[in-house]
From TrEMBL:
InterPro entries in UniProt: MoaB/Mog-like_dom_sf (IPR036425), MoaB/Mog_dom (IPR001453), MoeA-like (IPR038987)
Record keywords, A-Z: Magnesium, Metal-binding, Molybdenum, Molybdenum cofactor biosynthesis, Transferase
Biological process (GO), any one: Mo-molybdopterin cofactor biosynthetic process
Its EC number(s): 2.10.1.1
Cofactor: Mg(2+)
Stretches assigned to the MoaB/Mog domain: 175-307
Protein name per UniProt: Molybdopterin molybdenumtransferase
Protein's pathway: Cofactor biosynthesis; molybdopterin biosynthesis
Organism the protein comes from: Desulfosporosinus acididurans
Catalytic activity: adenylyl-molybdopterin + molybdate = Mo-molybdopterin + AMP + H(+)
Top-level taxon of origin: Bacteria
Family matches, as Gene3D superfamilies: MoaB/Mog-like domain
Function field: Catalyzes the insertion of molybdate into adenylated molybdopterin with the concomitant release of AMP.
Amino acid sequence: MEKIKVQDSVGAVLIHDMTQIIPGVTKGPRFRKGHVVREEDIPILLSMGKEHIYVWDQNPGLIHENEAADRLAKAACGPGLTLDEPKEGKITFTAAHDGLLYISEDGILALNSLEYIILATLHNHRPVKKGTKVAGTRVVPLMIDEKVILEAERIAKTFSTPLLEVRPLKSFKVGIVTTGNEIYHGRIQDKFGPVLRAKVEAWGSEVLKQTFASDDISLIQNSIQDHLDQGADMILVSGGMSVDPDDVTPTAIKEMGAELISYGAPVLPGAMFLVAYINDVPILGLPGCVMYSKTTAFDLFAPRLLTGERLSRRDIVKAGHGGLCLDCPVCSYPHCSFGK
């Protein structure tokens, strides 16, 4: 540490808290450890009876925690996020709008593997609202070797996507095809439609229309094609997704020439979930649990599609880690382990 005159301390970094006492008004830290002295602080320090103060030695190559945190946060920050001002070496990332949080898990690991670097986040693909705190970063020491921060900045640039970002959900035109002889012939009331419509609209999209098809492959295919012809950006096909002989929805989708990504997902509820594409239009086969379970595989993957992401089989199978819903009496998703 170094003892210097207050008048010469602009730009210096305080080595300890400095208490200000104003009788009957306040008693507490006026300047915190790590504070960088500014010109306007000089009169205050003098009024506190400080002629000299103790500061960190200004060794070449070392930078203050606030500057380090600022550079670290900017290196990791992508679109859809705002950063607050550094305070005691800490910066918070906040969602700038509603959307889905995307995190480069490998990127976060690489940064945290550097000595003295801390970057803590929420889980990947979590739905967030504007103003949600999604991450925080800081460095451990008050002064850190700039080489560490330069390496963090270099690492962040090696990834093709930002380490953290919030992607907004796009507004899709969604077609619904509800299958099943019992519904098609009016023997029972459709329960899928109201549930799907509510979810689609909550995500900011619109239902183009809902059509009904019996357990007939050609009729299901005609219904899907009709939605495609009318410009659907996504098609939801509900019912007929189990392995019973008369459940023909997966067969109908595959035999249309769709690119099948996955039939089955390591998620409970939602194991019989199907993802396919006809050109760039996602076709989702929805199992019966979507009707009665508040959160299923459908809720994990559909928002990702609404950001414009194209899902791969690897994306689906990775959901097995955290893919077990605990069926809590009061659902608190996404504030739980499901899908994490």
